[in-house]
Amino acid sequence: MTVHRPAAELAVEIVNAWKSQALDPEWVAELLARELLPVRHRGVVGPADIVDAQAVLEQFAQKVSPVFEVGDSRSAADALNRVLASVDVRVTVSVSDDFAPHLHYDGTSAVIAERLRVNCLVALATVVADPSGALRLGVCDSCRNAFVDFSRSARQRFCTRRCATRVHVRQHRKRVS
Question: Less packed terminus of the chain by CB within 10 Å, N or C?
Fold first, then answer.
């Protein structure tokens, strides 16, 4: 099974927003207004929906955050399985004019945040179940942000090139001084 990369990256974004305490109603409203969410049937979102979504996403981030911090794929699988145990998922094959047949994962709830949560969890599960056995979830050595490693070698240590450069410049300056 291939990873739904946007959903895995969305999971990272939600966890990092929660860790930095940026997961507020404004952040959630912007998230729900995006066009490219990995879910279908978006409806009109009102203030009560945003508050509900914020609660769902905060709980999701709190439960999933430890999965990024473990040191090996077995521990990541165990941690993620504890979260997945509480998820009721409905899987369907979606066929539309614009896309080839593909899988949709929905919770039993029609709430948009629940759909986001389920899609993110399934994406993270496919990342953890990497056939190579490599751990592809991690926390940045520099800023402590979570990331998903989509590199070929599965040796990513930083969330962005900027963080990597910052650390390498610091190390270089330390060596030459």
Answer: C
